[in-house]
Amino acid sequence: MDLLRQHCSKNLPKNNNKLITTTLENKQITALLDIGRDRWNQYGRTIAQYHQFFRYLLQLRLPMVVFVDNKSWHFVHRERSRIGWGIKTKVKRISLSQLPFFSFKSKVTKIMREELNNWENEWNPSMRSHPEASHPEYSLLVNSKTFFLVEAAAENPFGTEFFVWLDAGYGHGDRSIFPPAWKWQPKFEKGIISLIKLTPPTDLINHYNLQSLYRQDISVISGGFLAGDRNSIIRLHQLYYKKFINLIEKQKIDDDQTMLVLLINEYPEFFHIYYGDWFDAFELF
User: Fold this and answer.
1) According to the lineage, what is the superkingdom (predicted)?
2) Residue 260 belongs to domain spanning
């Protein structure tokens, strides 16, 4: 069995931490930047709706580094201080234009415009309205998750060894998916990136490539959760950045879910895949 199949066949029972080696404290990383979704005709969402979702995530009793713009700065400070975890929270103010990938906005805009005007027959027509195919700001933001992670790992204000990415809207406001009393003590393996695959083990990830995923309504990997130790986070960002540039050079742009599948296929030994649903992180780890 090759390395890819070895790692993709691991399906640990829920809450089974015996195979995980570390008990060090983890740090949660997340970000919320307004990209104008309240003005979208489809897949729109106001910043107030995001705050309703975000409020649940901010209740977690974990050290946090939170990247936000001006619209969420006071909200995050208030929510974390209210539960007595303000001292274990680093809120970093940032705008979309400060993200490294923002320098590619004109190229991404051009790619999307040309695609929409010359939609390929093999592409799913419904994808024309999906944000990863029609909104440059969205693609630039969701592809910046490893940047947020590596920034937090570099500064490491709370001296933690492991870093966990959770989308700001993780759980979509469903209290039942979060742990009791908001206490979560996940355990991860060192030297690899842990993530969640949405399709079953029989759906081998090496059957997917850029052509089979591009502009198709297929979800294989959840981009809402990523975890790894400091050195693994740094390596992930380097690989991700290189792959992003590679796609741009091919006149293509996609979201983080597609990017992660491509990286897993190239570096299977670097990823530990767990199987679950979109919001299963608190049960699996």
Assistant:
1) Eukaryota
2) 24-284
Here the CATH number for the domain that contains residue 275 is: 3.90.550
Query: In 3D, which of 25, 21, 15 has the Cα closest to residue 62?
Result: 25
pLDDT digits (tens, 9 = 90+) for 74-106: 999 999 999 999 999 999 999 999 999 999 999
Return the structure tokens found at 59. 């209740």
Angstrom distance (rounded) from CA 264 to CA 111: 25
- Residue 154 falls inside a structural domain: yes
Q: Which two tokens stand for residue 227?
A: 């975890």
**What distances in angstroms separate CA 5 from CA 11, 97, 232, 277, one per listed residue?**
12, 40, 21, 20
- Total domains in the chain come to 1
Instruction: Express each pLDDT in 124-182 by its tens digit.
Output: 999 999 999 999 999 999 999 999 999 999 999 999 999 999 999 999 999 999 999 99
pTM of the model as a whole? 0.89
- The DSSP secondary-structure symbol of 224 reads T
Establish if 140 belongs to a structural domain: yes
